[in-house]
């Protein structure tokens, strides 16, 4: 059974940085698209970034391009999200997700598409 466990959230001031981690286990499918999502109170969940497990081009939503970097350490089965130049509007619960797939299709941007597996989330709060 796939398990995803996020960590690394916290409270920072505007302009600060955080690195989120997602420890993954239980993968049995031949391939997965990995992604980070976030959801702020009263707002719809939104995809932040995606990358194919084991390698591939990373994709980002426009509002985080140039500030966030998604990466992975295959040896540690860990997904990361490096977040720099944080803004108050980045405050949200951040979730790691995995989708059984042969490639990343950009589905992380589709609010109607649900990834197969989800972590429990880690809170990020950015104060002004």
Structural commentary:
- The structure is a single chain.
- With 128 residues, the chain is mostly beta strands.
- Helix content is 0%, strand content 49%.
- The chain has no helices and 11 strands.
- The chain has strands at residues 3-7, 10-13, 18-25, 32-39, 46-52, 59-60, 68-73, 78-83, 92-100, 117-118, 122-127.
- The strands form 2 sheets. Strands 2, 4, 5, 6, 9, 10 and 11 form a 7-stranded mixed sheet that branches. Strands 1-3-8-7 form a 4-stranded antiparallel sheet, with no helix packed on it.
- It is globular.
- The model has no long low-confidence stretch (mean pLDDT 95).
List the helices and strands and how they pair.
Elements: E1 3-7, E2 10-13, E3 18-25, E4 32-39, E5 46-52, E6 59-60, E7 68-73, E8 78-83, E9 92-100, E10 117-118, E11 122-127
Parallel strand pairs: 2-11
Antiparallel strand pairs: 1-3, 3-8, 4-5, 4-9, 5-6, 7-8, 9-10, 9-11
Question: Count the strands?
Answer: 11
- Work out the strand percent: over 45%
Q: Return the structural class.
A: mainly beta
Shape: globular
Binned, the helix content reads under 10%
Low-pLDDT sequence parts: none
User: Can you write the helix and strand succession as a string?
Assistant: EEEEEEEEEEE
Measured between the Cα atoms of the first and last residue, the distance is: 40 Å
Q: Tags for this entry?
A:
globular; four-stranded antiparallel sheet; 11 strands; mainly beta; seven-stranded mixed sheet; 128 residues; 49% strand
